Amino acid sequence: MSKLFERLKDLAGPEMAGPSMAFVAVMLIFGIASPQFISAATFGSVAFQLPELGLLTLAMLLPILTGGLNLAITFTANIAGLTLAWVLQSYGGADAGVGALILGVVLALAVGAASGVVMGLVIAFTRAHPILVSLSMMIFLRGLGEFLTRGGDISGFPDFIRPLGHGSLLGIPVPLIVFVLCVLAWHVLLTRTKLGFNTTMIGSNIEAVRYSGINTRKVIVWVYALSGLMCSVAGIIMLARFNSVRVGHGESYLLITVLACFLGGVNPFGGFGRVIPVFVALIVLQLLSSGLNLLGANQHLATAVWGILLVGIMILRWMAGHFKILKNRR
Amino acid sequence: MNNPAGAEGNDKPLLALRHINMTFGGVKALKDVSFEVRPGEVHCLAGENGSGKSTLIKIITGVYRPETGAEITYDGQAYSHMSPVTAQASGIKVIWQDLALFPEMSVAENIAFETMVGGWPRLVNYGRMRNIATDALARLGVSLDVDLPLKSYAIAQRQIVAIARALVGEARVVFMDEPTASLTQSETDYLLDIVRNLSASGVAVVFVSHRLAEVLEISSRITVLRDGALVGVYPADGMTQSRITELMTGKTFDQQVRAKPKQDRPVVLELEGLTRRGQFEDVSLTVRSGETLGITGLLGAGRTELALSLFGMLHPTAGRMALDGRPISFSSNREAIAAGIAYLSEDRLSLGLVQPQSIADNLVIASLRKIIAGGLISEDRKRSLVKHWIAELGVKIGLQDDAISTLSGGNQQRVAIAKWLATDPKLLILDAPTVGVDVGARAGIFDIVARLAETGLAIILISDEVPEVYFNADRVLHMKKGRIVGEYDPRQASLAEIEEAVYA
């Protein structure tokens, strides 16, 4: 039993303290404030809303770990969604077959990865700052998307796509299953693969890693490629959830993904961070907004509360660090 | 060589401390330490890292308050403790190792900055600032363009600027913390001249340095601390480097030349006319299995560039390299590592190790393929690989997951060596392996080097400290301005002879 606990602790790491405390606090406060909070309905709504923000956060996580940033995540997701929509439309829209869906998904994933590869190559070879590079890519993709769609929605997809956004498998929403699988994939990537190892090492000191015989350029390109690929997954899920694609969908998630990473204990300067605490942090954010929604609060207020929560966590973390130093001194 | 300057006839101390005790978190940092400085003398404070030198300086400058019972006398007045304001106002100045200067601001602003803070009216008088700066520099016998930004000057000149800043207002004792750590030999000579001028003008200088040669050259007296306790105060006259080392570490090091004949061993590395334009030229050498080849020379002699060319990170423009008789040329250090060449960087802090990351991760980074099982990193293999090397090289660590930055310089260097040994190299290039390593721990590093050579590893040992290569290498090459200008056999040449050639 204690071994299992150790193993769980090992899985999550010390970064887990903040997010799990926030989780308990949110459950307690809303559980007391509203009797309906701890109910299947709440968890249903969380389960369906979590994946979009969650998948985009995973896309943001890898670049942050290398000490970079990918500001193009939401528009990469849009462009990937557009790719899929375009394939479906050209195979008859609502009458398109499963073959068209598979082709569309493959192309969508390829488009997202390609956007990442381009950013990765530019960052790795020119050493330009990732913020500038990804900002350029974001503007390019937004312009391209708006040009192609004339700023409108694209809809009219075959019915069998609906379950991807709204269906359940054994009572678990399909988007949630996709998200959890992606979380596990990222967890394995970061803790057990050479690429993941090098990703975090690069975040601390890229030159020292290069001197150790690691092809740091290749790692950077892979990191942004995988980030783009994860954006595509988010884009496909968004298409299925809204049954339409519009450039600008999910734009407001961009900075929230960064904050979710920090809430999950990821070092803003790179080098340190784990997937599982970020996953819990995402659940906290979603529970918070569902809880406020249930109490009848305005949705914009929920966003404001997210901001307060994050500032609060930073202060708590500082206090915890301070306390530790004082304790060590004694 | 003793320093004739300074008012040695005046024995009345300017600053005297007695019964200084200081405890941090249950650890006694200073145990009943006494220390005194006479007016105008150059006094060296010697001790290993953690011996209490910095704590003592911080007590003198009022940063820390000593435990009760302390007696501090300065300029005839008694204090129970100093405060930063009194220390500063009464002429006790410190130049910390990091200098604390502003690279973007002008020399004048850097020097006169403090006199400009807090005055009224809150306006900056550039004319006055320039005058203050020029005066301070003139006192040092130096002229710099005070309007240029500081960053346009080399590190040695910045050091001068930091000293000039300390001299603004009244300075009677100046503490210098490792002032020569990042200077070349000629820059160091320049700085030592400045210190002599200061001393001659009646300012006492307390010099903290690892480099014992210059300590002996410049100071008139030496106070040695070990583990927070005073070992003694000694006149520099008649002192030797090995005697100071013994006093600092409490151990005797009978340094003996380790060189042995290795001509019958197979050649591992052979260079013929290797050239990289502008950095080194026509370098030919061989290193045999089990042989340690020392390369010495001043900073900027092209040693590191040569090493990086062997390691595939720089590309030679002419010449030939062969490893085990086969010609080699690398387009990256990955190829060099795969071929069996390892390079321990001279810059452990920013290139040698990934400082914030764990001991374990730093140790395995260059040999990840060894801990991969079924495509994934095996935590068990990683742990056992790390455990093996920690034991093999006697590294003292807490947990494998502790950050490497928590280790002492000597232990960090052992991990860095282990990281390369884990790649199974044929040739190990050690570039300044004792930089930032305590005197006591250096011997341990060289014991490891000797043991590795016995296993048949070919080693190139690069250092700008001639004694290091003299005692620890089988052959010594002298590199100057990118060329090899001399070869010595330590069993035949004397240390003085090589030092004369290198430092002249």
UniProtKB/TrEMBL annotation, chain A:
Pfam families: BPD_transp_2. It comes from the Bacteria. The chain crosses the membrane at residues 20-43, 55-88, 100-124, 131-149, 169-190, 219-240, 252-269, 276-295, 301-320. Keywords: Cell inner membrane, Cell membrane, Membrane, Transmembrane, Transmembrane helix, Transport. GO terms for molecular function: transmembrane transporter activity. CDD domains: TM_PBP1_transp_AraH_like (cd06579). It is found in: Cell membrane. One of its GO terms (cellular component) is plasma membrane. This is Sugar ABC transporter permease. It comes from Metarhizobium album.
TrEMBL record, chain B:
One of its GO terms (molecular function) is ATP hydrolysis activity. Pfam families: ABC_tran (PF00005). SUPFAM superfamilies: P-loop containing nucleoside triphosphate hydrolases. Residues 15-252, 262-504 form the ABC transporter domain. Keywords: ATP-binding, Cell membrane, Membrane, Nucleotide-binding, Repeat, Sugar transport, Translocase, Transport. Transmembrane segments: none annotated. Belongs to the ABC transporter superfamily. This is Lipase. The lineage of its organism: Bacteria, Pseudomonadati, Pseudomonadota, Alphaproteobacteria, Hyphomicrobiales.
